[in-house]
Backbone:
């Protein structure tokens, strides 16, 4: 390789990155097309989950006929949910019981569910093998990088 090719390669090499990605849907059943049985993928683009050990989660909270469904990445739910089951393999599991939640509070507003007792049935469904739950290792090349490489090629050999 000549000197110009080496310089061009050194300039653009940091722009190429390897990405291990997991893509999940993110929505709540109060949004149209995000129900338990009527999910419409055309409304929701999949989002990139950044954590390396991530899973896609479908959280189903039920009280009688009232059903609330939340679809998201596991890393987004871990910050505010303490009832995530320890077994996070593919499949559905009931929520973990947390005996200490709301132990030392005495709320005067009864509408705030500090002890998470409103929903009688909470189920976590984990997936990382299905469509839009799949993981992949791909090299990501941006459109900017591609355009710069074309311009550099034309400038050097053009």
Residues:
């Amino acid at each position: 390789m000549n000197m110009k090719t080496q310089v061009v390669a050194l300039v653009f090499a940091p722009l190429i990155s390897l990405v291990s990605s997991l893509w999940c849907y993110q929505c709540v059943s109060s949004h149209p097309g995000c129900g338990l049985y009527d999910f419409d993928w055309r409304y929701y683009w999949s989002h990139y989950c950044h954590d390396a050990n991530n899973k896609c989660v479908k959280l189903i909270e039920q009280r009688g006929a009232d059903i609330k469904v939340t679809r998201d990445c596991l890393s987004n739910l871990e910050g505010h949910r303490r009832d995530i089951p320890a077994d996070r393999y593919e499949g559905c599991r009931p929520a973990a019981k947390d005996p200490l939640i709301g132990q030392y509070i005495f709320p005067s507003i009864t509408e705030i569910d500090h002890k998470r007792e409103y929903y009688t049935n909470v189920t976590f469904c984990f997936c990382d093998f299905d469509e839009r739950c799949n993981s992949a290792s791909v090299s990501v090349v941006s459109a900017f990088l591609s355009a710069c490489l074309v311009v550099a090629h034309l400038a050097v050999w053009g």
About this structure: The radius of gyration is 23 Å. Residues 134-140 have pLDDT under 50 and may be disordered.
